[in-house]
C-alpha cells in the first residue's frame, strides 16, 4: 500500500520515543470494551504508560506504526516479540476500526513478517481470540495454521478479558 508509511521501533527506541503515549493510546483505542470487533475486553489493553513500557521491555517488543501518508494519522499498529532466536509472536495488531476491510491489516501483517524474517526469525506465532469475529479466518488466509485451542477465563494471565476461546496459530516465515 503506497499510501502508508510504516516505521519500526526497537524496544529501546520505543521506550525513548516522546510519542510513546500516543502509540499506547492508539492500541488501547482498538481494544476498548464494547469495541465493534474486539468486544471481549473489559478494560483497555494497557492500564497506563508504565504497564505499556513493562510490556515492551519485558517482551522485547518491536513495534510498527503505520501512518496515512497524506494526513500522518496512525491507521494501524502491530509488532512482534521475541520468543527465541528463531521464533516470534505477533502482538498489538490493531487497525483503526473505521478503516476495516481496506487491506491495511493484511499489509501490516505481511510487512511485519518481512521485517521479522530480515531479523532472523523463521516462525511467527499468533494468539487469536475466536470471539473476535472473522479474525481467525483473516489469519488463516495469511497462512497461519491452528496448533491448539484454550478456553481462557477472566483473571490470571488475562485479567481484562471475558471468557474467550484462544486459538494458538503458527506460520513458517
Q: Identify the quaternary structure here.
A: single chain
Average pLDDT score: 84
How is the CATH topology of the domain at 4-123 named?
A: Aminopeptidase
Q: Architecture of the domain at 4-123, according to CATH? A: 3-Layer(aba) Sandwich
- Share of helix, binned: 25-40%
- Give the CATH class of the domain at 4-123: Alpha Beta
Tell me the total number of β-strands.
7
Distance between the termini: 21 Å
Run of helices and strands: EHHHEEEHEHEE
**Strand order of the biggest β-sheet:** 1-2-3-4-5-7-6
Unreliable runs, pLDDT <50, ≥5 residues?
Answer: none
What's the story with the biggest beta sheet? Answer: 7 strands, mixed
Radius of gyration: 15 Å
What fraction of residues sit in β-strands? Answer: 25-35%
Description:
This protein has 173 residues and is of the alpha+beta class. 28% of the residues lie in helices and 32% in strands. It has a seven-stranded mixed sheet with strand order 1-2-3-4-5-7-6, sandwiched between helices. It is globular. The mean pLDDT is 84. InterPro entries: Acyl_CoA_acyltransferase, GNAT_dom, NAT_camello-type. GO terms for molecular function: N-acetyltransferase activity. Residues 4-173 form the N-acetyltransferase domain. Keywords: Transferase.
Amino acid at each position: 500500500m503506497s499510501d502508508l508509511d510504516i516505521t519500526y521501533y526497537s524496544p529501546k527506541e520505543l521506550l525513548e520515543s516522546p510519542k510513546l503515549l500516543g502509540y499506547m493510546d492508539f492500541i488501547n483505542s482498538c481494544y476498548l470494551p464494547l469495541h465493534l470487533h474486539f468486544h471481549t475486553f473489559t478494560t483497555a489493553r494497557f492500564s497506563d504508560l508504565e504497564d505499556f513500557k513493562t510490556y515492551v521491555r519485558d517482551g522485547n517488543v518491536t513495534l510498527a506504526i503505520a501512518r496515512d501518508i497524506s494526513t500522518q494519522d496512525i491507521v494501524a499498529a502491530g509488532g512482534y516479540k521475541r520468543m527465541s532466536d528463531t521464533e516470534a509472536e505477533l502482538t498489538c495488531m490493531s487497525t483503526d476500526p473505521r478503516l476495516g476491510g481496506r487491506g491495511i491489516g493484511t499489509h501490516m501483517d505481511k510487512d511485519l513478517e518481512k521485517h521479522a524474517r530480515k531479523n532472523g526469525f523463521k516462525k511467527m506465532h499468533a494468539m487469536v481470540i475466536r470471539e473476535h469475529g472473522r479474525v481467525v479466518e483473516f489469519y488463516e488466509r495469511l497462512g497461519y495454521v491452528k496448533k491448539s485451542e484454550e478456553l481462557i477465563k477472566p483473571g490470571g494471565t488475562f485479567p481484562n478479558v471475558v471468557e474467550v476461546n484462544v486459538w494458538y496459530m503458527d506460520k513458517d516465515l
